Fold this protein.
Amino acid sequence: MAQILLIDDDAALIPEQVRLAFPAPLHRLRVAVTGAAGVQLMTEETPDVVILDLHLPDQTGLEVYEQLRALNARVPVIFVTLAKTADAAIEAMKQGAFDYLFKPLDIARLRHVVAEALEVARRMRSPVTLAEQPADSSEDGALFGACPAMLETYKAVGRVAAQDVTVLITGESGTGKELVARAIYQHSERSRAPFLALNCAAIPENLLESELFGHEKGAFTGADRRRIGKFEQCRGGTILLDEIGDMPLSLQAKILRLLQEQCFERVGGNELIRTDVRIIASTHRDLRARATEEKFRPDLYYRLSVFSIHLAPLRERGDDIVMLVRHYLRRFSRELGREVQDIAPEALKSLCEYDWPGNVRELQSVLKQALLHASGSVLLPAFLPPLASPSSQPTGVANAATTGEGFDLEAFVKQQMTPGANDVYAETYRKVDRVLFTAALEFTRGNLRDAAAALGISRQTMRLRLRALGLQVGHTLEGGEES
């Protein structure tokens, strides 16, 4: 249940809009009509996210925000304001507020922003377990193993967490790089300040620059207001630049300057802004090799790798795989309502002999699929999804470029880049959608509702995309509905 605290003196309209956007029982809304009452509620029970009006009867929203931040700076605060100029809201963003919205509230926008804030809050709040043996817990923040490589990882986190230096975390996709970054954050002096993670490979170049550094009004088409970037917003906290190896060269220069001088300028601006954030970077790529290929700045590589932690792939972790299988089997059995308590020796042997190019993330997916097909208390080999033979599995860092079984996204894009090509963007999205929708439907055994929910889209959108891709589902499991 997500806990939302609303501090707004409009006792009639705004609370009803928020209740409509976040209904019970999945959400619990508490309302205060004055700043003092809101601060009191915060002291009684820490919420997951706060929605705060800029204009309150007893004090300003900024004054209330300062009190809330003093109580717990890790709780995301979203400002709402009636004034379109929003100078005070922008000032609040500089002080670390999560975002601001205009009244009257756009419900769809409200849902989106609050969902992002809840995810950020979850990442900051969820403790990361680093241990030789798994705890009997359903928490997602578990990184464990007793092999020598994992023991070295635990030691490295312990050595660097308290040191306010830049850290570079390397390893294949699915090895747990974000978990290590969060562990460093949680054991650092900055643990009471925000933690933000950005995937540099998932955001287009022009948007990534604005996301990190912010922009001034009129800096580019569509920049209708000033935006405060993450480096300015995450004051005193920690930022994870995930997949930094895919960051464009032009943006790498600005990151290098920030690391060297601890200052930057917003896009389209001339004001020099000082920052106070700790940077943790992660990548599945070989940055030294990319520097040799002139795809990554060598000087930035040296700045980032003040302290490096390399995570071993699952295939190199020896007997850890048996421990991981049994741990996730117990955990996912509880989550999925299955009675499976053990695994047959033949099934365990198959899992141990597999190379796991997707590492722990792939292992989790395989076990969930197996449990959905399982019956009885023992996981049999017949319940496992098809696994490629070890000899056919690629090894090394390049594995992380694959999207779906047998589909290499990077290779596909390069193949499309031919003289006269004019539809690479659309063709790539069609290919990715085909892999994505097929995988989702296979995972849910043809259930359109569950597949759409897993992808975060509506069933109508999924049906339209399936029709456009020429894919058909014979029947769904939605109450016997034929499709």
